[in-house]
């Protein structure tokens, strides 16, 4: 049943996960969260997967956040369970040992914007709109939005967006650094796959360690961050991929990395 809510496609080391509830703007109910959780957990151990793209079915919405129709039926303890589940899921996406690209194909509100914030890179269609709109429902972002947004766009701008609950266009999101790139709707997946293909050309161990160093280093002082970077570098030194990179450079050919 869960697989109906999430489409999975793998090609050339790239897995595309497509939220598949377009009739409700790809809102997040318990079954979809579970399906996404199962996929993220399994992808961690798949060596043939180098990059993950998260997008959604249709051209109207990336994700409108929580399924409010489901939410209205839940007692308080189930709402707490939902928040716990979605928060931990988005953290697992952020901490996945592979780069994750969000292909924001339309409206991304509340949990939809929070899902994109958990990804490493965000590329949006020109038609996309984003926002953490929870305060307009007398709640706050509960899947990491109060923490990830200020780290990305700055404290002041994050407070403005969260306090007002305003929606912003893709162009404004690009201007404030909320997204990395904006493109036409019909080009969105191609652009994401093009970036993913570039990442796939790099050494997978190096990519994993670079992501780890960036994520962990940003949460501490620079001296500790530099130590984290050094330790991540040490992991790369004994790999076969590092020797392959040196050999390929010397032989003037394209390296073939295997994640070893």
Walk me through the structure.
With 260 residues, the protein is α/β, with parallel strands linked by helices. The protein folds into 2 domains: 2-200, 2-enoyl-CoA Hydratase, Chain A, domain 1, CATH 3.90.226.10; 204-251, Lyase 2-enoyl-coa Hydratase, Chain  A, domain 2. The protein is built from 11 helices and 10 strands. It has helices at residues 30-43, 68-71, 76-94, 111-118, 145-153, 155-164, 170-175, 188-200, 204-217, 222-236, 240-251, and strands at residues 6-11, 14-19, 51-56, 61-63, 100-104, 107-109, 121-125, 129-131, 168-169, 181-183. The strands form 2 sheets. Strands 1-2-3-5-7-10 form a 6-stranded mixed beta sheet, sandwiched between helices. A 4-stranded mixed beta sheet has the order 4-6-8-9. A hairpin with a 2-residue loop joins strand 1 (6-11) and strand 2 (14-19). Helix 1 runs parallel beside helix 3 (76-94).
Give a short summary of the structure.
48% of the residues lie in helices and 16% in strands. The chain has 260 residues and is an alpha/beta fold.
Low-confidence residue ranges: none
Distance between the termini: 37 Å
Strand content: 15-25%
Percentage of helical residues?
40-55%
What descriptive keywords fit this protein?
about 260 residues; alpha/beta; 2-enoyl-CoA Hydratase, Chain A, domain 1; Lyase 2-enoyl-coa Hydratase, Chain  A, domain 2; six-stranded mixed β-sheet; four-stranded mixed β-sheet; 11 helices; about 50% helix; globular
